[in-house]
Amino acid sequence: MTGYELLIRNARLRDRAGLVDIAVDSGRISAIGDLNVYAEREIDAQGCIVSEPFVIPHLHLCKAYTLSAVGEDALLHYQSDSMTGSSRAIELAREVKKRYSVSWVYENAKRAVSEVVIHGCLAVRGFADVDSLAGLTAVEALLKLRADVGEVVELQVVAFPQEGVVREPDAEELLWRAAEMGCDVMGGIPWIEYAEEDMKRHIDTVFDIATTFDKDVTMLTDDTGDPTLRTTEMLTLETRRRDWAGRVSACHARALALYPMQRLVRLAGLMKTNGVGLVISPHTGSLYAPVRNLTSLGVNVALGQDDIEDAYYPFGRGSMLEIIFLAAHLFRMTDSQSLEHLFNMATFNAAHIMKLNGYGIAVGGEANLIVLDAPTVRESVKNHNPPRYVISRGRIIAESGELKQEIIGLGKH
Ligand SMILES: [Zn+2]
Description:
Oligomer: single chain
Helix content: 25-40%
Largest sheet: 8 strands, parallel
Number of helices: 15
Distance between the termini: 43 Å
CATH class of the largest domain: Alpha Beta
Bound molecules: zinc ion
């Protein structure tokens, strides 16, 4: 009888009734079923859910844990949800970048990725600010982290011109250099520009770089309560013009909540046709894009963490169960079917946006698995405890909120 490296007994998968065993060998799932086999290590899931790991397609990783350095004023401004409030918060958050050094950003981001892993997420799009204050410091720090954690976590680094491209003179040149340095994704924030033609130019510039370097694109669009903003639409139209379908996502798009229905339907149709996904983080503001409408109109909507203890959000620990818990309240999506949908938004929908290869639990696939601390999605969301086990490529890298640091070198803090 063959022995396996790891065997998970009594696992409950979300897509089938009853319990199964999952055998893992050489980092891959070897068998799923009622297995009469041996393994070097056995785990008893005790009927708890075993799921694909969570995926975070939007996280301002270079800003993690900067709240104390920025001060609380930024939060007060951001909470106002007005254009001036959001802009003032960004100004205050900008100041902290004078303190950026590769080692400071690296340590903060490493701590954040550790938290994210502990909470069962194994793929993150980390945004690195690129502007005249941050320069390429954040990019350098996150690229170094990507290399250091690459064995267990897929970290995609986004070069993100937080202060704008047109209004920030150095940003364009820095973005080109960030792409050369090996950033995975080109970011943007067109709504931050002062005029519509500048917003359009912002999008054009980012696409010029993305198409030159064959990179995906993600942009923060219409992130304030102004229904006249239409950068989500501009982004989607540019995706079509550049033939970049399926490679682009928008984040936030709060203004869509205020759109007349006809306009929303037209935009959603465009997004669906051009494979433009949307990442929302409803816990970070009082407005959020209309998730039910967009979903029913065929847009791929995912949940993101957005922030961990920065000028925009004072909480956050990389727990997507926590984000689902908050979203369930905000959206009034508390029935079982809705909770399953929210769970998919933090797993499959997000994996689709990050274009993760081979994502999902299947024989022959990579053994990336989490054993949750409850037998149902509802109870997992209710308690939002860290998973009992987090398994990356067949290795247990975290157990009930504790990182197995000897395995991955992600230090404790
Ligand atoms: Zn954001």
